């Protein structure tokens, strides 16, 4: 497992890192985003979508669980599985998304741990300060599998 840490001081930088990843990902890639509410997972995903060439505004799929965007270089499947905290992830057919040709981005992936593939890029978002107004974040990115190690090296 390879790991990189990014100290980030504003939302625009988080989005820019997502955009860079969006330019690098390929068909079938799985990106897991973990961290508390407001840590920056959806902000990162907005950048990733831009990097894929998706111009539609990305809305948080908290209530819909999955949103699909098909106007970019690759399809984007943006999932927010927060509502599955108490289970139910096994009924969603997530496998079809993970094994498909799009790029899967999963917010709160720990809530569907048993459904996840064995190889993925995981990004942990952490607020550095207790102050909720602070824009400081630490992003810890870990690569699971050689394909994702290659991606991580380019970030
Ligand atoms: N460094 C940062 N990275 C990402 N978001 C930040 C940062 N600093 C402040 N923010 C703000 O924090 C909020 C993050 O919200 P969001 O991306 O929806 O988080 P999550 O999806 O993790 O709940 C946004 O309002 C964003 O503008
Ligand atoms: Mg979110």
TrEMBL record:
- Keyword Nucleotide-binding: yes or no? yes
Q: Where in the cell is it found?
A: Cytoplasm
Keywords assigned by UniProt, alphabetized: ATP-binding, Cytoplasm, Magnesium, Metal-binding, Nucleotide-binding, tRNA processing
Chief localization: cytoplasm
What's a Pfam family this protein contains? TsaE
Protein family membership: Belongs to the TsaE family.
Which NCBIfam families does this UniProt record tie to the protein?
A: T6A_YjeE
What's this protein's name?
Answer: tRNA threonylcarbamoyladenosine biosynthesis protein TsaE
Q: Which gene encodes it?
A: tsaE
